[in-house]
Structures are given as C-alpha cells and as structure tokens.
Amino acid sequence: MAIKVCKFGGTSMADGNVxxxxxxxxxxxxxxxxxxxxxxxxRFSGDIKVTDLLYKCSDSLExxxxxxxxxxxxxxxxxxxxxxxxxxxxxxxxxxxEAVEKEMLGGAGRDYCASRGExxxxxxxxxxxxxxxxxxxxxxxxxxxxxxxxxTFDLAKKVLSAYPRAVIPGFYGLGVDGKVKxxxxxxxxxxxxxxxxxxxxxxxxxxxxxSGFYACDPRIVNSxxxxxxxxxxELRELSYMGANVLHSESIFxxxxxxxxxxxxxxxxxxxxxxxxxxACNYTVGETxxxxxxxxxxxxxxxxxxxxxxxxVGFARKVLAVIGKHGISFEHLPSGIxxxxxxxxxxxxxxxxxxxxxxxxxxxxxxxxxxxxEDIALxxxxxxxxxxxxxxxxRLFKALSDAGINVNMIDQGSSELNIIVGVEGVxxxxxxxxxxxxxxNER
Length: 442
Fold this sequence. Notes:
The chain has helices at residues 16-27, 50-62, 66-87, 93-105, 110-129, 151-160, 188-198, 232-240, 252-255, 314-324, 352-364, 391-401, 427-439, and strands at residues 4-8, 32-37, 166-169, 172-174, 180-182, 203-208, 229-231, 261-265, 274-277, 291-304, 338-344, 368-381, 408-411, 417-423. The protein is of the alpha/beta class. Strand 8 and strand 9 form a beta hairpin. The longest helix is centred in the first third of the chain and has 22 residues, at 66-87. It is globular, with a radius of gyration of 24 Å. The protein starts with a strand and ends with a helix. The model has no long low-confidence stretch (mean pLDDT 92).
C-alpha cells in the first residue's frame, strides 16, 4: 500500500471541531498513515495563535514578570481545555499543562516554550485518531549552527519504521545540547517533509485553509488564476518572495527523492489543490508565467568607485563586513564601477545600517555610498519564460504603462524568474500590472 503523509497547519488545528474535521480527512483514505500537526492557529480575525502566546510566556519569564507569564499561560490553558471539551473526551490536558508550566518556570528555555503548542496538538490528534504519538525529538536533529542535520533522515526512517501509523508534532527537534530546538516560524511544513522522506511516502499532503497556489495574492488581484502544478524551483521562488502557502525550505527533504507535494484545503477537501513536482509538463504556447509574488521591506546599499572592476577582492571585502554581522544579502547587482547590496530590513535594526555603511567605507574606501530604503522585490516566475521571446519586453512595458519606476533588475541564469526592485508603495501595483499583462491578455 502506498503511504501518504498529511501535515495540518494552524488553522486546521484551531479548535476541537476543526480537529475532528482534519481527523475525518485522515480516516477517509487508508493511505494517510502519518500525520504532522502545527499548534492551534487563529479561530477568527483578532484571535491570538497559541505559538504567539507561548513566545509571550517565554518573554515574560526572561523579563522575570511572573504575573504576565501566568496571564499568558492561563489563556493557553483555556484554549486547550476548550479543545478537549469540544472533542468530547478526556485527553489529559489539565495534567499535561500543569507539567509543562512547571518545566517552563524551571528554566526549560525559549524553544521548549514555543514547541509546546505542537506537542499538545499532536497529543490531541493522536488520541482522536487512536494511533501512537511519536515525539519529533526522537529523530529531528539540528547541528551546531542550528541547521537541520542530515542524520535526521536516517533517524526518521529507523524510528518511524516501528510505527505503521503515527502522529508527530511539527516545528521542533533536538539541538546538539540535547535540548528542544525549533525551526523558524512556519517550520512545521519542513517537519512534514522530513517525515515524508523518512517513510518514503508516495505523496506529502499539506492541509491548510486555501485550495492551493494562485498566480498571485488574491488580496491584490481579484480571483487570480489557480495553479494546478508547480515545480520545486517555482515553489521555492514564489514562497520565498511572499507566497506564504508553504514554507520555502520545506521542499528540500523531499526534492532529492522526488516525493510530490499536494497543497489541500481542510475546509474544502474535495478541491483538487496544487501539486508540487520535480518538473512541470510545460509546452511552448501555454501561459508563459506561472506566478507573481512580491515582498516589501528591503534596503539597497550602493557603492560607487572608479576602476572597481580592476580592484581584486573588492566584493569579498564588502561581503566580509556583512558576514561579520551575520547578515545575508538577497541580491548583488553590479556594474563596472558600482555594486549594490539588497538586504532584508530584519537585519538592519537599531543602528546596524549606519554601522554597516561605516565599516564598508573603511574596508573598500568607495567614492560614494547611496542608501535606498523601503524597496519592494517582485518576482515573476515561470518555466515558460525561457522559451518565449519578448517576455522581458512585455514585463517592462507593462510597468512603464503603469507608471512604475524600476530601481533594480535581476534575472537568474536559468531564466526561471525576473526580479525587479521598486518603491515599497508600488509593490501591489507592480504585481497587478504584471498579472494583467500575462494573465488578462487581450
């Protein structure tokens, strides 16, 4: 029998009734044998995710504000006890919550606090499905740099082979110090991918609150085209640039072994969803562009220096400065006498930008340094772009007609994407202009 791994996101675990719906989906297909879950998400607009409450618990403990900790933890308790009540069976929530509170107060650490939403969600789902609970700490490993360790895959295979069916919490594993370590936010998708590879699944189903990927954000363009199939590469590009249906790193465990991913809607399980596969069946004549995604919040640092191209080691010295600060760059467009660094603003808090400018100035002594803040990056992605003459011309004419000035252009050598940098306020209009050019052709 083929094996399917199901990962249910926060909205699919938000309350007891939704959890029962997710369990019904699992039971409807005997091939769905392994389930990975996120912590309960928002039930309604203005609600607070359990993970956010858990981070608040950690922050309060770090600030030695026991009262604030108690208030946040009480909200978590109410949430899980209500889920237990809605499901209609004793799941041992009260005792479990008391034990976790004791661990938190005893100094268990921030990642331990953050992970408990998934831990309890998985305990609940395991009880509802009446299958074993397998803790992610049994096989998910992080190395000294906090990156997923390759030993994880062999461990997952070994551990999960003992369980014909199981429920596993997402988002965390063990660090080299033997303590709980979490992925970045949304990392439960990576956990699902790890399990899929560990059991060599025929399909990894990621259940969320949308019916797959669309050609662009439905909040920007009304009723955009639905995408039936994406390649791993296209998914990576779109997810990283703001299409937040699936974590951009979740493809890596399954890509090397060719396991397809299907994005499904928990609230509309009959919908076909979107498949993410090794290579799309693209033929010339179909839609050139697969999708468009954009993200605001970048800063450009541009260096100008005469004969820069003749100065050996110039780029290395600049990159050494940002590397010293633990900063990665998004793009590095350059000319003969100019070079720009595009950096995510999350790295540039509390005076870091000025510090970078000063240190880069000392390292390479440029003639001028220009800083451009609030840049948006918009990616136009599609395998068909490499096979169609005039794609770039159409894209830039559409932006020109919309009155949008382009500050940066970057096209990958594979011709899979074209990325433009525009003013932050132009991000949505840029996406609309490109979408209308390629999807609303006259």
